[in-house]
Design brief:
about 350 residues; alpha/beta; Aldehyde Dehydrogenase, Chain A, domain 1; Aldehyde Dehydrogenase, Chain A, domain 2; 5-stranded parallel sheet; 12 helices
């Protein structure tokens, strides 16, 4: 199957997903039953992102035109270990592997195991040759290269087991936001999208704020309070109550608005329902911190003039383009190097 045909199939998948599909709806309900974090609303959000940002012909062609993609004389078997922190988070690896002309051997997360096989079933139904490009397994074996996504702890095991093969091994990263205190109310509200979407479980979600010394918290907390319906989700509310109790018992100072807690902490990983913050004195200082800790940061949310580093506008953290690669590692470049 040539590249043009593979692109056609992915565009067809996008067109199909933009329409009503009762079987897909049933799979989303099954996924939610299996994993209460994956609400129907969040699964639809992930699907809509795939349709609008990943599976349009112009977007795919604009992305791939950056590379020289030659048809592999001998397609490689690429083992893909997928994360399960947010819905369909492994789709980009599947898409990249398929468009590169290699075979994807996929281990799904137990948290998100029903919808991607359905996508493959659709593709195989439209073109029987597509079936050869995808395989779902419980254990990755008989592979030529690996793309594995997990925690810092699991990454150590991945490196030990897969280190001798060509690989991309992703670890924990989080989004950060740099505020100046001059943001509008609307910008602070949009920042809430970067914090609360997918309950803050995505690697692109903002988990830490850099704030100027003397920052006035009231406008921020008032705008974030507009997302207070999030506490209607039992899992989020249980985490909020548990973490609030921990902070109180340990006498940790917090700023609390009933749906998010702000804690002064230098760590880039915050608890569910909590957000870390750290003060800075100058633009140069915060830029230095971002550079020093770039291995911990997935993306930066800020106004253009706030930092002279690649960043996303408020509300854009969970709207990556096809070339916004996880951990900054170019997946297509890696896959084409296997040819």
């Amino acid at each position: 199957m040539n590249l043009a045909r593979r692109i056609d199939l992915m565009v067809q998948l996008g067109e199909h997903l933009s329409k009503k599909d009762e079987y897909l709806d049933a799979l989303m309900h099954r996924t939610h039953y299996n994993n209460q974090w994956f609400t129907i609303e969040n699964q639809r959000l992930a699907l809509n992102t795939l349709v609008s940002s990943f599976l349009k012909r112009d977007k795919i062609e604009n992305w791939l035109n950056r590379y020289t993609i030659q048809e592999p004389i001998s397609p490689k078997k690429v083992g893909i270990i997928m994360a399960g922190n947010i819905p369909l988070v492994g789709f980009h690896d599947l898409l990249s592997t398929f468009l590169s002309g290699h075979y994807a051997i996929m281990k799904l997360s137990d948290k998100d195991q029903y919808i991607l096989p359905y996508f493959v079933k659709l593709l195989s139904g439209w073109d029987a040759e597509a079936k050869d490009y995808f395989q779902f397994v419980q254990h990755i074996k008989d592979f030529d290269a690996v793309i594995a996504t997990g925690s810092n702890n699991s990454a150590r095991y991945f490196e030990a087991y897969f280190g001798k093969f060509p690989n991309i091994i992703r670890k924990n990263r989080n989004g950060v936001a740099v505020l100046t205190g001059k943001e509008s109310r609307e910008e602070l509200f949009q920042l809430g999208e970067d914090i609360f979407k997918y309950f803050g479980l995505g690697c692109r979600n903002v988990a830490k704020l850099y704030l100027p010394k003397g920052y006035e918290f009231k406008p921020l907390m008032e705008e974030l309070h507009k997302y207070n319906s999030i506490v209607l989700n039992n899992k989020y509310k249980n985490n909020f109550d548990y973490n609030y109790s921990l902070y109180v018992l340990n006498k940790v100072p917090i700023i609390n608005n009933g749906c998010i807690m702000l804690v002064e902490d230098t760590s880039f990983q915050s608890r569910i329902s909590a957000l870390h913050y750290e003060f800075y004195e100058s633009k140069a200082e915060v830029e230095e911190q971002l550079q020093v800790h770039k291995e911990d940061i997935q993306c930066i949310i800020a106004k253009e003039e706030s930092v002279d580093l690649p960043s996303f506008s408020f509300g854009e953290a969970q709207k990556p383009k096809l070339w916004d690669y996880a951990d900054g590692v170019d997946t297509i470049e890696f896959l084409t190097s296997l040819n």
